[in-house]
Amino acid sequence: MRIKTSVDASNASLAIELAKQRREYKLVQDINVKLAEQSERQHPEPVPNVLVAFDQLAVIPKGEAMLSRDL
């Protein structure tokens, strides 16, 4: 009987500790999500190198044919 009482007390203690750990885990998850969102706002994805593409553009007057260097 003493062993059963001791085991029940231990299980109750472990259940309380598990509940604490789960709350802490959930809190850390929430903080992690907020930090990731903040990081994305502060450091957005880099924009592709658009300037290089603009350097390769040329204005062709209407009706004029022009050979392409890419062909």
Could you please describe the fold and organization of this structure?
This protein is mainly alpha-helical and 71 residues long. It has one domain. Helix content is 66%, strand content 0%. The chain is built from 2 helices and no strands.
Give the SSE layout.
Elements: H1 2-42, H2 50-55
In percent, how helical is the residue content? 55-70%
Radius of gyration: 32 Å
What fraction of residues sit in β-strands? under 5%
Order of helices and strands, N to C?
HH
Shape, principal axes of CA atoms? rod-shaped
Spans with pLDDT under 50 lasting ≥5 residues? none
Mean pLDDT across all amino acids: 80
Oligomer: single chain
Which structural category fits the helices and strands? mainly alpha
| Helix run count | 2
How many structural domains?
Answer: 1
Biggest sheet record: none
Q: How many beta strands in the DSSP annotation? A: 0
Distance between the termini: 91 Å
